């Protein structure tokens, strides 16, 4: 039987640390979240972020746009927030409706306020091992592994999913920790052969219970990033009941990487605040 890695408890511990930091800030740190359209999943993610910000004392500004808003209006709003010295962090809730140019919108965020670490400049800095803002979910994965003292150096990490939000930045962070990394995606022809080799298996696809027990090596560490809704209940990409009998450590869904992502967002907001010269 595996150890269940409690992302919820760890995120509450991090929230307490952030609360303490916010108390010592001269000006209340703040974040602005841009939402376009009204996707129910996005609504619920934004609510969770707002709740966490309120809990630690970060001012949360929600900028909501109708689905047919011109792209320029959104970019102009981001530019206004870039120039607002009282806004420390800016994030665009993804996914944007298909008609928008996501890259153009993300790249209009000032690099120093990019709490999701998704501008091209911040991505390039991360790949080159420079200090920068890093996407929250991969950061959350690294943090929970650290908390449970799981060694990474020399381990074979297999990541299923190559998105710019999760898989790709996680690959970079794992390489920086001297793991051997394999990254799989929808065109990988022998997925099971790959996943079975993993000392640490991370799944970030969005396909309920696709990782079955026969795809996992005995004693592997299994990190489930996926969030899926089946019969009105949340589940991950991993068949938790079966895989938890084989893994040494496993994250649940919910209460795994989801709360860790929000905790890392709080850390990134405080990083943005601390990096800003305080003028008042
Ligand atoms: P994307 O849709 O951007 O990426 C999904 C990735 O999975 C792609 O690389 C895709 O391959 C790959 N993929 C799809 N089908 C298969 C398959 N059958 N076998 C192997 N790989 C496959 O999703 P995200 O990265 O944004 O999110 C992934 C999941 O993680 C979702 O469930 C999302 O809700 C969740 N998530 C959770 C977060 C959290 O806080 N816990 C935060 C962010 C996301 P290809 O590139 O070839 O298309």
Question: What is the topology?
Answer:
Blueprint: E1 3-4, H1 7-23, E2 30-36, H2 40-56, E3 59-65, H3 71-82, E4 89-92, H4 102-107, H5 120-127, H6 136-147, E5 156-160, H7 167-176, E6 180-184, H8 191-195, E7 200-203, E8 221-224, E9 228-230, E10 233-235, H9 240-243, E11 249-250, H10 257-275
Parallel strand pairs: 1-11, 2-3, 2-4, 5-6, 5-7, 7-8, 8-11
Antiparallel strand pairs: 9-10
The chain binds NADPH dihydro-nicotinamide-adenine-dinucleotide phosphate.
Residues 137, 160-163, 165-167, 184-188, 191, 204-207, 225-228, 257-258, 261 line the site of NADPH dihydro-nicotinamide-adenine-dinucleotide phosphate (NDP).
Describe this structure in words.
With 280 residues, the protein is an alpha/beta fold. It has 2 domains: 27-111, 3-Layer(aba) Sandwich (Rossmann fold), CATH 3.40.50.10860; 136-258, Rossmann fold. 39% of the residues lie in helices and 16% in strands. It is built from 10 helices and 11 strands. It has helices at 7-23, 40-56, 71-82, 102-107, 120-127, 136-147, 167-176, 191-195, 240-243, 257-275, and strands at 3-4, 30-36, 59-65, 89-92, 156-160, 180-184, 200-203, 221-224, 228-230, 233-235, 249-250. The strands form 3 sheets. It has a 6-stranded parallel beta sheet. Helix 7 links the parallel strand 5 and strand 6 (180-184). Helix 2 packs across helix 10 (257-275). The protein is globular and about 50 Å long. The relative contact order is 0.17.
């Amino acid at each position: 039987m595996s150890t269940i890695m409690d992302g919820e408890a760890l995120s509450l511990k991090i929230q307490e640390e952030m609360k303490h930091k916010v108390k010592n800030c001269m000006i209340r740190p703040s974040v602005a979240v841009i939402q376009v359209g009204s996707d129910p999943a996005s609504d619920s993610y934004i609510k969770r972020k707002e709740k966490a910000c309120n809990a630690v004392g970060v001012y949360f500004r929600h900028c909501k746009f109708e689905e047919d808003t011109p792209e320029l209006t959104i970019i102009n709003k981001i530019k206004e927030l870039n120039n607002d010295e009282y806004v420390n962090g800016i994030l665009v809730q993804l996914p944007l409706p298909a008609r928008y140019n996501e890259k153009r919108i993300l790249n209009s965020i000032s690099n120093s306020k990019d709490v999701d670490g998704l501008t091209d400049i911040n991505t390039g800095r991360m790949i080159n091992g420079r200090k920068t803002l890093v996407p929250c979910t991969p950061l959350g994965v690294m943090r929970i592994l650290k908390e449970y003292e799981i060694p990474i150096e020399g381990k074979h990490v297999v990541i299923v999913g190559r998105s710019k939000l999760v898989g790709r930045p996680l690959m970079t962070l794992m390489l920086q920790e001297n793991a051997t990394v394999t990254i799989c995606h929808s065109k990988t022809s022998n997925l099971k052969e790959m996943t079975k080799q993993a000392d640490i298996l991370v799944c970030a696809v969005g396909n309920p219970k696709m990782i079955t027990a026969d795809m996992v090596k005995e004693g592997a560490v299994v990190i489930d990033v996926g969030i899926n809704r089946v019969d009105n209940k949340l589940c991950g990409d991993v068949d938790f009941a079966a895989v938890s009998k084989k893994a040494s450590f496993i994250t649940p869904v919910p209460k795994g990487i989801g709360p860790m992502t929000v905790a890392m967002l709080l850390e990134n907001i405080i990083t943005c605040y601390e990096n800003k010269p305080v003028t008042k």
